[in-house]
Amino acid sequence: MTTKYLLDETQMPKTWYNIQADFPEPMAPVLHPVTKEPVGPSDLEPLFPMALIEQEVSTEREIEIPEPVREVYKMWRPAPLYRAHGLEKALGTTAKIFYKYEGVSPAGSHKPNTAIPQAFYNKQEGINRLTTETGAGQWGTSLAFAGSLFDMDVNVFQVRVSYDQKPYRRAVMETYGAKCVASPSNMTEFGRKVLAENPDHTGSLGIAISEAVELAVQDPNTKYALGSVLNHVLVHQSIIGLEAMQQMEMADEWPDVIVGCTGGGSNFAGIAFPFMGHALRGGQKSRIVAVEPSACPTLTRGKFAYDYGDTAKMTPLTKMHTLGSQFTPPGFHAGGLRYHGMAPMVSHAKELGLFEATAYTQRECFEAGVLFARAEGIVPAPEANHAVKGAIEEALRCKREGTSEVILLNLCGHGHFDMAAYTSYFAGELGDYEYDDAELGMALSGLPSV
């Protein structure tokens, strides 16, 4: 019985995949936050290097991965695909479960897949300083890692609740040479404004983005880097699914169901979009399921509308599933899934009916993660627990129906820096949060009129 499917370094994809080439309908344009007119490259130049702006607007199916980026990727890519024999046995399921494991990267998650190229393209343009936000710290850790390789200064604004919950993630960022501060902070005008209104604010990704963007636009030698949501980020993550397609063929299988967790959409798109595009071009179709936290239900309860990517309303307006840019989610432990919006490409795919979405509570996701750890030996990150939960539900459905479907999930990172969350779970201290209708209505009432 084969357990892991490994590609040789020579089999690593040489191009990323861009699903925009295969969408049956084009996406809505990105709008300027002030004029509400479609943005041009010059509008984005204060934030991003031109190479990334070109990728952001590209509709080419394949985008070449630069050789220096591929060389760094070799530190952990190609990433392994595992057959979850232990989990199948524990569930007594008739399904075959596979998982693509992205926790083998130095940062412990899928995030370096985009951190490395973002640092590379910025360095090529002579930029030496990057600002960013992070929730749980997976992205901040990854950009700090990339900054250390390309000799760049990295400033990370970490959402306050995660900054307090996960001190070891912060320590890793500092080990790589980055500066990490809790957001909202006193370093920016917007941060000071938020703290003046509420000195104990737990923070949100929207606020942290505002702070990072504010620093970037003030200094021509500083650019902003985003770990999810944007088109170019999702394109970089497609290497996950491209490798998985080769590995499923090695296993002589093809997924009937693909499951990924969703916060901003990067790891979900990474695993799902190459398979989705394969089906759009006439290939075999897989059922695709996005799993999100019930406390931040962007896809299942959000509105598909134009909204700001940040709380200070400094970023361009994108059409996406959103809970409203003023939304502050409760402090649950899957910090990487605590974002008010969903990637425009993922949102567009949802509107086209290319996948379905579901939401689960925090405790049931941790329960799934513990079951996975005891069966497979890997402790998943709280974010990844959502994908595990979704895959388990699909496997149990197969058991009830007596079918033998092939299930593929993206295990997007390990939970080694999240053990405080597991400790709280075992102590019975983790709460389940539902986002109530009154709060949802209030946040959505503030959407911009476009």
Task: Describe the 3D structure.
The longest helix has 20 residues, at 382-401. The protein has helices at residues 41-44, 50-57, 67-73, 85-91, 112-124, 138-149, 160-165, 167-175, 189-197, 205-218, 231-237, 239-250, 266-280, 298-301, 344-351, 362-376, 382-401, 419-426, 437-445; strands at residues 4-5, 15-17, 62-64, 81-83, 96-101, 129-134, 153-159, 179-183, 222-224, 257-261, 287-293, 303-308, 317-322, 356-360, 406-411. It has 450 residues and is of the alpha/beta class. The radius of gyration is 20 Å and the shape is globular. The chain has 19 helices and 15 strands. It has a domain at 4-8 and 66-108 and 232-445: 3-Layer(aba) Sandwich (Rossmann fold). A 7-stranded mixed beta sheet has the order 1-4-5-15-10-11-14, with helices on both faces. Strands 8-7-6-9 form a 4-stranded parallel beta sheet, with helices on both faces. A two-stranded antiparallel ribbon has the order 2-3. β12 (303-308) and β13 form a beta hairpin.
